[in-house]
Input
Amino acid sequence: MREQKLAEEYEKALFYLPPTLREILQGVPEGEKSRIQEVRLRAGRPLSVFDGSTNRFVTSRGALTYGGGSGFLVDQGLIQDAFVRLCDYSVHTHQGEMERGFVTTPKGDRVGLCASIVKDRDGNIACREISSLNLRISREIPGAGRELCRRWDLSRGLLIGGGPGTGKTTILRDLGRFLASGELGPCRKVVFIDERYELSAMFRGVPRRDIGLCGEAICGLPKGEAMEQAVRTLSPEYILCDEIGSMGEVREIAAGLACGVRFLVTVHCGSLEELRTGPIPQALMDTGAFGGAVLLDSPARPSQIAALLTKEEFYHGKGAGTASGVLRLHAGGVGEGQGPVPPGP
Output
């Protein structure tokens, strides 16, 4: 069932691609569709996909190869057509995103851009000479956060770390859904800070992702502004924010904490050491908003948890990489701070 769901998300992501590319990518072997995380178009080079550990090339018949010689060659015209379609034929509405190097499809898939960004006298932005597009396939996996909920009381706040493709957004969304839908007790007022539309996939005012019965999303605003707005106008019990990356955003979390809000946030880090010593994770932990931190495993095992640390272990680093100092998540184990357990599927 899980593999089928992942494959369906892959198929949905292809909807916004030109028919030629869509047909080729739909021809990929069924067993591979659930594993593909990225589809990359590079001008003058073969179409490729990434499954979390390996880059492979796609032939005109959908076969996957390790050498690019037989891969389907992507030309500049196809990239331009794909870009307009991925913007849902409304490129101007994505100006703010383009300036930051991406656009987001109505489904909630993020598309990274390599292009020349041109701004006119009025501040209007246009993309010129697009050389590559990277379609990152967003997946909603109900229950992805269940194992973590068994081991951690979310009311203590949680810092979620991991590298690109490790499932940070997926697991954060699922935790918010649990809270907002009453699967961990009474329904909680949860605000999703959704700068890139990835958490809610909001489209025409309706979220295409399940953010829970009492979940709300502020979309498109810079995270710091959105957090300030949420605290002032929505009286949230929890704020969820993806990929905190600046000290200004850290300060807004500190301000929200003073108003009694609890936070679940994600940060980029590639290892347990980076989680403990990186300037952003350290500054976040120093706010007092988080009782612990969790490290996600790898792109090859998205949304799987490598280690869970209490706040004390985060600071003191006892037993780094050992089961004694780091709360390992494993079947049948019980970690410190166990919270209510959401029901299984």
Remarks:
- DSSP finds twelve helices and 18 strands in the chain.
